[in-house]
């Protein structure tokens, strides 16, 4: 059964992550302090992540670590599928974010370049489709 601390830990972590954003919104954002505030926000997030990880893994007993290899393999398979989808979508977003403005600029100068320009945007989006395909293959294999 969960202790009171384990039940309140997600709420505490969310408050610790959101609290600096509340103060930034209340005081206003100045361009001089943005870099320091961003570094502080990332540091708080990393600290909360480490705190939650330590508290979650500290309660594991030796009997709990004897997980059947099938359960561990299934969990790692889902993790691999999630990483394949997430990282490919991130890469596709970067590619489309770079290619789409260039394509719009090329089309505005010469409308005949539409066919050539849209191909580069579609190639960037294809990266996400490949990642989704890999994750589907991984999940089907589990």
Question: Could you name the key traits of this structure?
Answer:
single chain, 83% helix, mainly alpha, 2 domains, F1FO ATP Synthase, 4 helices, 142 residues
Task: Please characterize this protein's 3D structure.
By secondary structure, the protein is mostly helical. The chain folds into 2 domains: about 1-65; about 65-140, F1FO ATP Synthase. Helix content is about 85%, strand content about 0%. It has 4 helices and no strands. Helix 1 (about 5-25) packs antiparallel against helix 2 (about 35-60). It is flat, with a radius of gyration of 23 Å. The model is unreliable at about 60-65 (pLDDT under 50).
Secondary-structure blueprint:
Elements: H1 4-27, H2 34-58, H3 69-109, H4 114-141
Helix pairs in contact: 1-2, 3-4
Summary?
This protein has 142 residues and is mainly alpha-helical. The protein has helices at 4-27, 34-58, 69-109, 114-141.
- CATH superfamily of the largest domain, by name, is F1F0 ATP synthase subunit C
Biggest sheet descriptor: none
Helix share bin: over 70%
The number of helical elements comes to 4
Please give the alpha-carbon distance between the first and last residues.
30 Å
**Helix-strand category:** mainly alpha
The CATH first-level class of the largest domain comes to Mainly Alpha
Total beta-strand segments: 0
For the record, the CATH architecture of the largest domain stands as: Up-down Bundle
Radius of gyration: 23 Å
CATH topology (level 3) name of the largest domain = F1FO ATP Synthase
State the order of secondary-structure elements, H for helix, E for strand. Answer: HHHH
Average pLDDT confidence is: 80
Total of domains: 2
Spans with pLDDT under 50 lasting ≥5 residues?
62-66
């Amino acid at each position: 059964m969960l202790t009171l601390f384990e039940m309140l830990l997600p709420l505490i972590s969310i408050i610790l992550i959101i609290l600096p954003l509340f103060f930034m919104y209340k005081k206003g954002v100045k361009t001089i302090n943005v870099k320091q505030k961003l570094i502080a926000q990332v540091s708080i997030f990393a600290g909360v992540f480490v705190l939650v990880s330590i508290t979650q893994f500290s309660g594991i007993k030796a009997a709990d670590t004897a997980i059947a290899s099938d359960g561990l393999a299934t969990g790692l398979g889902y993790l691999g599928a999630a990483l394949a989808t997430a990282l490919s979508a991130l890469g596709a977003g970067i590619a489309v974010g770079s290619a789409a403005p260039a394509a719009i600029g090329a089309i505005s100068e010469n409308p005949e370049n539409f066919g050539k320009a849209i191909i580069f945007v579609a190639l960037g989006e294809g990266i996400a489709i490949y990642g989704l395909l890999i994750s589907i293959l991984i999940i089907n294999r589990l």
